[in-house]
Amino acid sequence: MRKFIHVTLLALISFGLIQQTSQAKEKPQPAEARQSSIELAILLDTSGSMEGLINQARSQLWKIVNELATARQNGKVPVMKVALYEYGKSSLPASEGYLRQIMPLTENLDQLSEELFALKTNGGEEYCGQVIQAATNGLNWSDSDESLKLIFIAGNEPFTQGKVDYKVACPAAIKKGIAINTIFCGPEQTGIQTGWKEGALLADGSYLSINQGVRVVTPKTPYDKKLSELSRNINKTYLFYGSQKAQSESTVSQQSADKLAGSSSPASEADRASFKGSGRYRAKADLLDAIVGKKVKLEELKEAELPAELKKLSKKEQVIYVEKKQKERKAIQLQIQQLTKKRNQFIAEEMKKKNKNQSSTFDTAVIKALKSQAVKKNFQFQSE
């Protein structure tokens, strides 16, 4: 009997130790081991009077994300995601508060750019509290305390409209670690009187006012043409994988975003090229990025999923071809980075010659608020 009890106790102790070891292995990674992120949700008023705001957002998207691309936290590069909502348009369902999620938080900025250019404006009701609530609850925000989570809402009607009180929606957002930055399209004092500043203060954000009627003009530079050429060249290093439909959609999306940037302005086209060279650009279903990110293994892809360039090659030749394209991309990225530095210096010098008291626009407001919020999460920007 004593022997049985002794054996049983040993078994229970061993089982306990096994359980403890197993539980130790299953513990989640500490926050410092996880990659942090910068996540932005852009909420744009698309009512009838907001065409100027939309045009500024379209033309300055790549300039904004170029600033984001220089962000570092403790020397590490964060994941970067952007979401897009529209609100205040009468053609949107009244039952849903005249709002729509256009894009969830994503690294696919090609598609986000396409969606920006597709936006149309018409009259409606602008429910700021409701669209903030929708973005707070409807997006897959990071659960890391180290991540920077921001909502930017822009419009020109009173912040008080709608059934959802902003005095409830804004505090609810900051409880989840999401700061609200408000951008009023009009005189600063009018925005203050209509609740825009209070909305930002309730969620640890910044209040800014802009002139949406100003057309953003960036000086042309001697480097724009070469950057455009390099942008086309780097496209040749992208190998899209998956179904034929997926590959076709990825190619069209990349080319469409290029075309839209070019049609917007030479500066926007150059800014897009700069982003491609930053190493932060992500094209949908690109095989090279997927391999580096360990999302796929080249040897495990079915022949039908392979890019056309790889289908006639042996497994060994496929690896060599992919490595060749990776080297080509890095070389072009380096050229772009070098030209971008010269271009930025040229623009800075040209802007000094102009009136320093230029009107604030969407891009300047976003970048200013972004940097002031990023400091709180120990982010630094290499562009500074």
How are the elements arranged and paired?
Layout (H helix, E strand, L loop, with lengths): L1 H25 L10 E9 L5 H19 L1 E3 L5 E9 L11 E8 L2 H10 L9 H11 L9 E8 L10 H10 L2 E8 L2 H6 L2 H6 L5 E4 L13 H12 L8 H21 L1 H12 L9 H6 L22 H39 L8 H13 L4 E3 L3
Parallel strand pairs: 1-3, 1-5, 5-6, 6-7
Antiparallel strand pairs: 2-8, 3-4
Helix pairs in contact: 2-10, 2-13, 3-9, 4-5, 8-10, 8-12, 9-10, 10-12
Q: What would you note in describing this structure?
A:
Helices cover 49% and strands 14% of the residues. With 384 residues, the chain is of the alpha/beta class. The strands form two sheets. It has a six-stranded mixed sheet, sandwiched between helices. α2 runs parallel beside α10, α8 packs antiparallel against α12 and α10 packs across α12. It is globular. The protein starts with a helix and ends with a strand. The N terminus is likely disordered.
Distance between the ends: 77 Å
Q: Give the overall shape, derived from the CA principal axes.
A: globular
How many helices in DSSP terms? 13
Q: What is the overall pLDDT average? A: 89
- Unreliable runs, pLDDT <50, ≥5 residues? 1-33
Q: Care to count the β-strands?
A: 8
SS-based structural class?
A: alpha/beta
Question: What percentage of the residues does DSSP assign to strands (E)?
Answer: 5-15%
Strand order of the largest sheet: 4-3-1-5-6-7
Helical fraction equals 40-55%
Provide the succession of SSEs.
Answer: HEHEEEHHEHEHHEHHHHHHE
Q: What does the main sheet amount to?
A: 6 strands, mixed
Cα-based radius of gyration, to the nearest Å: 25 Å
